[in-house]
Structure formats: structure tokens, C-alpha cells
Amino acid sequence: MADVAKAAGVSHQTVSRVLNEHPNVRAETRDRVLKAIDRLGYRRNMVARALVTRHSRTLGVVSFDTILYGPASTVYGIEQAARDAGYFVSIVSLRTIDRAGVRDAIDYLTEQGVDGIVVVAPQRSAASALEDLPRGIPVVAVEGGHGGAAPVICVDQAEGARLATAHLLDFGHETVWHVRGPQDWLEAEGRIEGWEAALTAAGREIPDVLSGDWSPRSGYEAGKRLAAMADEVSAVFVANDQMALGVLRAFTEEGVRVPDQISVVGFDDIPESEFFSPPLTTVRQDFGAVGRHSIDVLLKQIEAEGRGETERFVVPPDLVVRASSAPRNS
Amino acid sequence: MADVAKAAGVSHQTVSRVLNEHPNVRAETRDRVLKAIDRLGYRRNMVARALVTRHSRTLGVVSFDTILYGPASTVYGIEQAARDAGYFVSIVSLRTIDRAGVRDAIDYLTEQGVDGIVVVAPQRSAASALEDLPRGIPVVAVEGGHGGAAPVICVDQAEGARLATAHLLDFGHETVWHVRGPQDWLEAEGRIEGWEAALTAAGREIPDVLSGDWSPRSGYEAGKRLAAMADEVSAVFVANDQMALGVLRAFTEEGVRVPDQISVVGFDDIPESEFFSPPLTTVRQDFGAVGRHSIDVLLKQIEAEGRGETERFVVPPDLVVRASSAPRNS
DNA sequence: ACCACGACTGTGAGCGTTAACAACCTGTCG
DNA sequence: CGACAGGTTGTTAACGCTCACAGTCGTGGT
Hints:
The structure is a homodimer of 330-residue chains. With 330 residues, chain A is of the alpha/beta class. Chain A has three domains: 2-44, 434 Repressor (Amino-terminal Domain) (Orthogonal Bundle); 56-155 and 287-317, 3-Layer(aba) Sandwich (Rossmann fold); 157-285, Response regulator (Rossmann fold), CATH 3.40.50.2300. In chain A, 44% of the residues lie in helices and 15% in strands. The first copy, chain A, contains twelve helices and twelve strands. In chain A, strands 2-1-3-4-5-11 form a six-stranded parallel beta sheet, sandwiched between helices. Chain A is elongated. Chains A and B meet through helix 4, helix 5, strand 2, helix 6 and helix 10 of A and helix 4, helix 5, strand 2, helix 6 and helix 10 of B. Chain A binds a DNA duplex (30 and 30 nucleotides) through helix 2 and helix 4. Chains A, B: InterPro entries: HTH_LacI, LacI/GalR-like_sensor, Lambda_DNA-bd_dom_sf, Peripla_BP_I. Chains A, B: It comes from Planotetraspora thailandica.
């Protein structure tokens, strides 16, 4: 910077002013500085800037299993929204998720000097890490349950499940079976909740829940079990599309026709769902909206210096009806 | 830090030494400092550290479309490997990929003070941005063609395609059709190359190529066209699994039986492939290995301060045989 | 002619850390 | 007993930037 100042015949402070678009710089001076910057190939050192301003214009993201469609989409949405707002994103992708891991990641990012942190905490154990947050750094949670001290942005899982279940009941199915996601996941809980609520509201029996772990294989295994009771089962709500694919595969192998014998509904609307055999009825989540809102809320927290309200933002899901669900055949 | 020094009755430099695990600190002194740090809840300011050491222990990643399975897995592999090596990762996820975008991202990250950059450049236009790199910052390319000035880490796409095609020829198919990926993508080119090479090596005719854009829908459309010529076609190599799903769907709709009438092979081995109807024969890429190697090479470049060799690391792919491919029927 | 004011520019300090060097202490060896 | 090595600690000066403040200059009003 000193070199530029010398080359342009001004003080370092004037160079700084040009860089920061301060209004009180004569146009001619600005040009001279800009030319010098260009000629010398000068790049300002953001680290030094961050040291004095105490703002790095970088946000941290703590996530888990960023290869799964849901988390990957969420992180992508967050990154885009952050960049639009002029912020960088540093990512920590946890291998195993637990209280300690999330806390370490938050500490780690804090130490790096990020201005705020988005924690994608889809599991109870991760969400619990948000209960007593280190003060001094704004944090928002995505899919983080009640979120403890942090604001929460989430998709209304229960509502999505309710839509899916009600859709099947509307088709005249006596009841709807459910293949759930893994124990610790809040999304799995929310979906069960909505499913039960819809059944209860219609005065239907609540069948035993089958367990899965989000993987197609676990759906396949659940599908085998359901196929074995094909005479009692006419509709299944599966907690995500990957497991739903496994269910469809098991049904195909066992000669159970979808939707003639059994209707299947998934959750997520992954790009593949439309081309399953048959195309899958499912619940779409707007991950872009989740990312945008989480950044909005986080920036608001940063501006308010932690004194912002711990609001809660719920994004509504949509039902996408395709060929895997149909009126009951009897 | 001054506070800690005062509390422990030492100089700030001794605190710094404790923090950096300098050997020449008396055990008793270290304990005293550590206790003071703990008591005051002190956290060292990495920004100030980065300013003076000129190392941020942060690496930049420039990527594109991080929701697709391939890029997402690559970025995940990079992130894990970087963290194992004690580095942070800042991500820039490009919306549209072109020379200017990649250059901007590299500049952006350089300005932020990253120690090195991994560019995931699966497209020709992105790879071309690597031809004249800004000096002064180590860069490695993943899937970046010849890579220009930067070392390249990639999966041997042509070899994967050769494996897939040879597998189908071994099954007695007269020739193998191909649904390619989008124009600008190097991976699409590599896969075509391998496919042609395998056909040429076997002295077979090279059929017209069908075009897709990686999406299931484009595969579906290609599948419809192939189904219309089902009597000439007995084997198809599709450039990725998502498009292969679309092809399978189109075949199902048109009553083309897989693999009885037509064998289908994909590329990527996404988690869903095993549960397609029928389960998909495909080519698996080891994204974890790509991530690890790219970080290895990048760190080597950083140590060598840019004077490292521009090596090229090729990761071999594996053929995974499932039910969608079978010996020719007739 | 004087003053006030705004536009523009320069000066010095300081952000929190590490590097380089100096200083001190202890023990060992000739 | 003195010198010297080596472990341990403290002092000072950067790193590259912004902030607060202090000019300087020209303009317009009284």
C-alpha cells in the first residue's frame, strides 16, 4: 500500500480511501491511485483489514454429511446467499455429529475470526450443542429443533408429512404405513409427528413404524417386509426419496405393483424421483429459501451484535403428486 | 494476550510460546500460562497470527454445481483431507462457470489470504482459466484437463468408459451406443474418447452419439429415441447414472426390457444406482482419493513455494457389474 | 478583510500476533 | 575460577491496514 501511495504521490491513507470508496477523494486523485494500483498489480491484504476492523466478511458453516441431497442443497443455498450478501463461506463438514464435534467446530470457526456461523444441525445431538452457545459470536441453526439460544430456520417437516399422509387418505386408503428415518434425526421425528397427526385427525389406526437410516438399502429392507404383508398394506409414506427408491425396488422384486396394489410417497423431491419406476409422489423442500433466510437472519444478528431476537423461520413444503400414488384399488 | 501474560506473571511472548508449543518453556511456567488462559477464557486471534506469519492455514476451493453427486463428493473429499492436514476450507461455488468466473474466484480467494487453491474445473472453459495463473499462489486442478500451469488430479474417465464399453462387447453385443454429457465438460469428452477407443480396438462401428446434459430428463429423452430403434440397439453406455435412470425410465415406458433387449451401463455409482430397476451396472469413481491427492499435491506446492513440479495424478475407476447388463440375447 | 465551513489530504497510533535479538540464569568443563 | 553452551525469559519491531485527528486549501457570507 505504501508503494502504491508513493507511486501515486499520495499518502497511504488516501489509497485506503480510494479502496473503500470514501466520497471525499478528488476524482483526479482517485484516477491516479487506481492507475498506480493497476500498474503495480497491488491487491489489498484482507487479513490486515480484518485485524483492524474486526470483521472478516467470512461466515462459517457447520454441516454433516454434505453428500446427501438435503444437506448439500442447504449448504449450496447458504453459500449462494452469503456470496450475494458479500460474504465468504468457510465450511466444516463433520464426519460424526455429536455435541462435542459441533462445539469444536464452532470454536474452531470462531478462532478463525468468522463474523457469524450457520449450524446445519439436523440431529438431536447436534441441536443440543446449541443450548449453551459461546457468547460473542452470532449463530443461527438450520433444522435445529427449538435451537436453544439460536434462531432457527427450518422446513416444516410435520406439515410435509401431513400433506403426504392426507393425500394418501384422500385417495381412500384405510391407513398409511411409515418408513422412518434414523433415530436421532429431527427431520425423522418431525415427519413421524405429521404422519401420526394426519392419521389421528382422520381417526385412523396408527400402524407400527418401520425403521430406516435414509439409505436406499434400508428402504429396500423395509420394502421387503412391507411386501410380505402386501394384503394389509395399501399405502406407505417413506421418510425420504432414497429409501422410497429402495422400497420401490423391493416391491418390484416381490411382484407388488405400484401404485395398483400399494401407493408410495417419499420426501425431498430429489432430481431422480421424477424418473423412478413409477415416478415418485413426494414432498418438495425449498432449500434455496432456507439458505437465503438463514443468511438473512444471521446478518441481522451480526448487525444487532447478538442482541437480535431469536426468531424462528419456517419454510412451507410442497406436495408433488406423481404416478406412485393412486386411489385405493378394491 | 497481554491480559493472560499479566495474569500468569510472564511476558506476552512466553504466552505465544506456550500457544505454539515451543519446546523451551519450563513446565511450571507453561502450566501457569495454561491456567491463566483457561481462567480468562482467552482465544488466540488467528487473524493477527495470519497477518504476521503470512499463512492463514486456510485453503480455497472453487467449484461448480456442488449439488451434483460428483462435485459434492469431490468437495467433501477435499474438505476432509484438508481438515486432516490441519487446514480450513473456504468455498466458492460458481453458478455459471466460465473463464472470468474462475479467475474472479481465484482472485477473491487470494485476496482473502488463502494459502492455496483447489479448482474443481470439470469444464473446458473453467480449465482454460488455469492456463495463465496469477503467480504467487499455489493452485491445483481437479478434473482440469491438461491443467495449464497447475498440477492435475483426476479420475481416468477414458479408462472408465473403456471398461464399461469392453464389458458390453465381452457380452457379445455387436456395438455399443452412447449418451454423452454436455458439450463443454471434460468428463463427457473423456468418456466419449474411451468409448470410441474400445469400439475401435474391437473393430466395431461407432454409432451416432446421443446428447444429454447429465440430468435424468435428458437421459429420458435419449432413452425415448433409443427405444424407437430398439431393434438396432442392444447395448448403451450412458455418461452418468442420473441420465441412465432416465434411459431406464423411458425404456420401461416403451416396454423395452433391460437387460433382455438392451443392456445399460452408467457412470458414477451414485448411492441410488444399486436400487434402480434393474440395478445399474456402472463405473465407480473414488472421490475420496481424488480429494486426498489434491490436498497432498497442493500442500506440496505450498511447501515448495510454487517451485514444485506440475505433476499429474490419475485415479483409476472401477467397473461395478449389476443386473442392467447381460449377454446379448439371440 | 475576516471568519467559518466544507472538501480534501496527511500523520500517527494501534489492531494482536510472531520474529529477531538480547539478557539472564544455570551447569559443565578445562 | 572463568568461559561458554544452552535453556529460559523479556524487549522491541514489524505485519498491512483503518481510525481519529490534524492539517491545508478554496469558497462564500458578513
